[in-house]
């Protein structure tokens, strides 16, 4: 698949000595939704700022649409949209005028029909004459998206796009982002909401302390690093895992009343489920009674936490 953004060896060290990016390599495919996950301070916003011209890298290269950003920054930036994490904007301006002004910043002529289309798609048309300061937090965030879309970007960065909005509005915005992809826009989003990446992303990258820990197809990542987990509630507590269960990846929890299994080959793999079945047979043979079994496949969040803890190989 054609690449729309190529980042190679990107580093950023600030004047005070803090290194925010450490040799980042990243390739973004045209037309995909790519989710960049990481804790606070991981380097997500710095990486976006470097691509959008808000942060000057210390070293490394950025190529967008096949051209060097350092050489052709002005023309390439006009093809990129950014929805920033912070809500700061022209609060006393009406919505319609503010979004139209954003289009003009990139040297494009007025296009009332295009602006109306964007505002209607984001359920902002009825608010077009309202000052931005009068809107709710969720609506203000929609205005930021509208402003970023006003110049028809081919590549759109969304930095924590649903931070501070309620669940219903968040899901509505997910639908809007999916529609952008259907129209051919490549979307890169950073998020703290793991379910956001799990719901929308084609591929997922994990960044921590300025380094990319992993980039993979979402489903492939879950299949490769996911695990089956089973919590078996015992009718009588055990002091230790008996030798008869030593072949299984199990441990004891809650004062010996819960037997914890974690193994298998991940999402969609029956190995873990089959092994849990064998484990229950072994419990029966050993005369160990149990009253309940809670079994589930690990989520993207489990994998993310494991990566940050250094537990995933």
TrEMBL record:
SUPFAM superfamilies referenced in this protein's UniProt entry, alphabetically: P-loop containing nucleoside triphosphate hydrolases
Keyword ATP-binding appears in the UniProt entry: yes
Gene3D superfamilies: P-loop containing nucleotide triphosphate hydrolases (3.40.50.300)
Keyword annotations: ATP-binding, Nucleotide-binding, Transport
Coiled-coil intervals, chain numbering: none
Gene Ontology MF: a single term: ATP binding
Protein name: ABC transporter ATP-binding protein
Keyword check for RNA-binding: no
Superkingdom of this protein's organism: Bacteria
Pfam hit, one: ABC_tran
ABC transporter domain boundaries: 5-234
């Amino acid at each position: 698949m054609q690449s729309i953004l190529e980042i190679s060896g990107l580093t950023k060290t600030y004047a005070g000595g803090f290194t925010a990016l450490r040799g980042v390599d990243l390739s973004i495919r045209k037309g995909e939704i790519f989710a960049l996950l990481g804790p606070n301070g991981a380097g997500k916003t710095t990486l976006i700022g470097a691509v959008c011209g808000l942060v000057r890298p210390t070293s490394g290269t950025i190529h967008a649409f096949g051209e060097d950003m350092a050489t052709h920054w002005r023309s390439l930036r006009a093809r990129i949209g950014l929805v920033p994490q912070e809500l700061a904007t022209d609060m006393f301006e009406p919505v319609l005028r503010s979004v139209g002004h954003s289009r003009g910043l990139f040297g494009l002529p007025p296009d009332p029909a295009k602006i109306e289309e964007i505002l209607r798609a984001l359920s902002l048309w009825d608010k077009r004459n309202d000052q931005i300061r009068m809107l709710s937090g969720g609506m203000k965030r929609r205005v930021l998206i509208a402003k970023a879309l006003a110049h028809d970007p081919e590549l759109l960065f969304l930095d924590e796009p649903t931070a501070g909005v309620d669940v219903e509005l968040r899901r509505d915005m997910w639908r809007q982002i999916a529609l952008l992809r259907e129209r051919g826009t490549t979307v890169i989003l950073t998020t703290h909401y793991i379910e956001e990446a799990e719901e929308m992303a084609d591929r997922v990258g994990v960044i921590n302390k300025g380094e990319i820990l992993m980039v993979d197809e979402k489903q492939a990542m879950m299949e490769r690093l996911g695990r089956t987990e089973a919590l078996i509630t015992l009718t009588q507590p055990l002091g230790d895992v008996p030798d008869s269960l030593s072949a299984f990846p199990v441990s004891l929890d809650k004062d010996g009343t819960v037997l914890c299994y974690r193994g298998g080959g991940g999402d969609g793999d029956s190995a873990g489920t089959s092994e849990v079945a064998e484990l229950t047979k072994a419990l029966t043979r050993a005369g160990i009674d149990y009253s309940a079994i809670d079994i589930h496949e690990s989520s993207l969040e489990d994998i993310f936490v494991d990566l940050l803890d250094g537990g995933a190989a």
